[in-house]
TrEMBL record, chains A, B, C:
Protein name: Enoyl-CoA delta isomerase 1, mitochondrial
Subcellular localization: Mitochondrion matrix
Alphabetically ordered keywords of this record: Acetylation, Fatty acid metabolism, Isomerase, Lipid metabolism, Mitochondrion, Transit peptide
Pathway the protein takes part in: Lipid metabolism; fatty acid beta-oxidation
InterPro entries registered for this protein in UniProt: ClpP/crotonase-like_dom_sf, Enoyl-CoA_hydra/iso
């Protein structure tokens, strides 16, 4: 506890790293001068929904952080209610073919960049983390979450069949039978439920505490060799990323095909209609 | 609780669905008019042991239920002591080669039909579930069991080496180290032990309650898109069914070869002799 | 308890099996005449660190035990503080190429022999089990450990990237996310922590009790067919040993390449320096 508090003070002194100033406004990057930990804050109003531009900004920010030899990445949100609402469904609805293809490639690349990041990654989940929002959290090595929020992949509820790399992200964190049921039900977990199934590691009461816990986690690698660590991580995770590493074109084609089916388009329309009705009430 | 009770009343009103009347006497199929849930009752006296004809009846009943657009399948038994005792060992002992091949193909097809069923599947385990009886329960998406019964795959006790698709059924439900020990020991679990390792989801005190829990589970998919659900299920389970989907002939050949070894035939004889002695006492 | 105590007495009567007398002094093999269980005691002073000769002795002892139709193997240590400290790092530091290749092949063969042993294997962990010491324990089917010791694979702490067969040994026992974090952190678990994550099955208070528990575990297979058991084990474990069974040369080449990198050699030097400083204090 004392150690955490000391760290809290240190974190208060975080400064904007000069080399990071170029980061787009969609993402904010701060680097702690002492620890070398980069905090990557998602900052796309209103709810960090992932459109083409935001995915690109996220990927760039992560690549920049890695090339700057930071000691780790903490992923969090500037919105104190929503970590990320997932993909921007407008990108999927009646899509322009070219933009959709570019969009999906950015999703693939953002995911590979995060999932196989050379440095330790931790998610400070300070709001709801839905669909790809949950996937981003699950792609990190560690997760801490604030109470009274929700997290999960509810794709079957809007007629979406998640691609293998998303299944595999869940399988990196949860046992197979738990993944099966969660994906089939489109289950959204409360913070407490997420803790029970180990979808998250810990629950804390404030964003600052969450950032501290993430910093502690990244600090746990201090005595390890970073190259050996990165190679070991790649060895463990590469099998789950195999398709996207070796044949992203096939995954792209299959995903685009499915998104363009009338089945999905109609199901998506229905879902958006329901959401509208719900919001009006 | 209240909700479950209301459902209990509804279930009391279940009627024999007309389209289902053709189901053989070895299996009984009832469909709830309101929920669309089909209850498939195994009804082969005395203990639902799977011979050629019973496997065929099970497969046909499942295919019929799926083609009738039911909302889910509950698998249960008309015997209030035994869910299923597994394969009819008479099919394996000094077998007629042709019948054995046909028998094994039916086992493969029944398993694929159940394991990859498009609709939600749930097992109301109202008695002992041994060997393939356990496999059928584990191939469902959800399991609820009555107390004071047993469940497990005890193949090593009669010299049998379970084929990969049976290993994989266990692996769909249990962690690898648990599967290894259970299969090597030929472990039969009590209801309580099965709950502890999550081989079953819940324990209830009556068959009616079990059917209600299964109906609740199937109802949990109400707000999901059934096609997306089915495709997601197939995506998760197909890797475990790969051999039977792509090359059932090889699995058939390997299984027949093993069944015909003197090692297995002698071990089976010994086991049946022991059973006889035990029953005489 | 009573049963265990009776067994304790029986174990007290263990005699050196004549056929086993040839076992080298680096390993001691005793066979219980009644149960047929072989106790393989690692006996390389000071801390059972695995150099070429010791790996060879271990492999030979295991092969000898199997060919003598023993009913199972208990792996333990003659040192009451250390089960095994892992690989002898002198074999890896500025290595002679030929000796290193021979050494690594022996490691591969010892591992395959233990991991795929036809008979039940159990580890009585009566001291620290580090790196390959932990791997040997994890390659057994059952583990019981004494309190106040440590167990784990800390390879990332001396810049080592564990090869796939070592990752797979961990994955045979622990869930994927636990393996990832443990390997990346180079985590050494206390006895109590190891119990919590199921890296070990039980904690006992003396070596004798540990040997009894292991004997009980091996006895749990009494009613199974040993051939069916061995084939089932191979079926479950062979996928994890695939590379070493089918293409040990590639694994050898990759391992030797990594060991010879300046990255690893420097990291190892640093680590050994730290150890020296620590021991001087």
């Amino acid at each position: 506890m004392l150690r955490s508090r000391t760290k809290l003070i240190e974190l208060g002194k975080r400064q904007l790293c000069r080399s990071m100033c170029k980061s787009s406004e969609l993402t904010l990057v701060e680097v702690d001068d002492k620890t070398g930990i980069a905090t990557l804050t998602m900052n796309k109003p209103p709810v960090n929904s992932c459109n083409l531009e935001f995915l690109r900004a996220l990927k760039s920010a992560m690549k920049e952080i890695e090339s700057n030899k930071c000691s780790g990445i903490i992923l969090t949100s500037s919105n104190d209610k929503v970590f990320s609402s997932g993909l921007d469904l407008n990108e999927l609805r009646q899509p322009n073919p070219e933009r959709l293809a570019t969009f999906w490639k950015e999703l693939q690349e953002m995911w590979v960049t995060l999932y196989l990041s050379n440095v330790p990654t931790a998610a400070a989940i300070n709001g709801h983390a839905l669909a790809v929002g949950c996937v981003m959290a699950a792609a990190c090595e560690y997760r801490v979450m604030l109470p009274d929020f929700t997290i999960g992949i509810h794709a079957t509820k809007f007629g979406y069949v998640v691609p293998p790399f998303i299944v595999n992200t869940y399988l990196s964190v949860l046992p197979h039978p738990v993944v099966e049921r969660a994906l089939l039900q489109g289950k959204i977990f409360s913070t407490q439920e997420a803790l029970q199934i180990n979808l998250i590691d810990e629950v804390v009461n404030s964003k600052d505490e969450a950032l501290c816990k993430c910093a502690d986690f990244i600090g746990s690698f201090e005595q390890t060799n970073p190259v050996a660590r990165a190679l070991t991580k790649r060895q463990l995770r590469a099998p789950f990323a195999k398709q996207l590493l070796e044949d992203p074109e096939t995954e792209l084609r299959e995903s685009l095909e499915y998104i363009n089916t009338p089945l999905f388009q109609e199901s998506l329309d229905q879902y958006l209609l329901q959401l509208k009705k719900k919001n009006k009430k």
